Amino acid sequence: MRRAGLGEGGPGNYVASGYSAYEEENEHLQEGLRAKVSALKHLSIDIGTEVKYQNKILDDMDSDFDSTGGLLGATIGRVKQLSRGSQTKLLCYMLLFCLFVFTLLYWFIKLR
Q1: Residues in domain T-SNARE coiled-coil homology (predicted)?
Q2: Per the count of CB atoms within 10 A, which of 8, 19, 35, 83 is most buried?
Q3: Are 65 and 57 in contact (CB under 8 A)?
């Protein structure tokens, strides 16, 4: 049994059957798909690079926060040591000095 348009004969029968038009359309669609896949590939590579960069920044921030936490812990330990000892007079002077500095800063900011 023969199919219509796909019988024996030369290349002229392909044009008559529309095979060449379908083939051209498929190739055109393939090129469009290749371009889209290539764009997605480059986009995913750029996203991966950005994620690596952001992870590096987060790791740096984490280490900075850890070192700051250690510094604050040591400072609070010293203040506790001051409060436990007989140096309460020195602690009061420190608190009064801090109050004075904050009041002075408040006035400077308010006068601006």
Answers
A1: 20-82
A2: 19
A3: no
Taking CA atoms, 83 is separated from 47, 62, 75, 86, in Å, by 53, 31, 12, 8
Residue 84 tokens read as 């436990």
User: Could you list the mean pLDDT of each consecutive 10-residue stretch along the chain, which spans 112 residues?
Assistant: 47 59 92 96 97 95 88 84 72 89 91 80
Rounded to two decimals, what is the model's pTM? 0.47
Please, what's the b/e burial string for 70-97 (b: 16 or more CB within 10 A of its CB; e: otherwise)?
eeeeeeeeeeeeeeeeeeeeeeeeeeee
The closest alpha carbon to 21, from 7, 8, 5, belongs to 5
Question: How far is residue 34's CA from residue 27's CA, in Å, rounded to a whole number?
Answer: 10
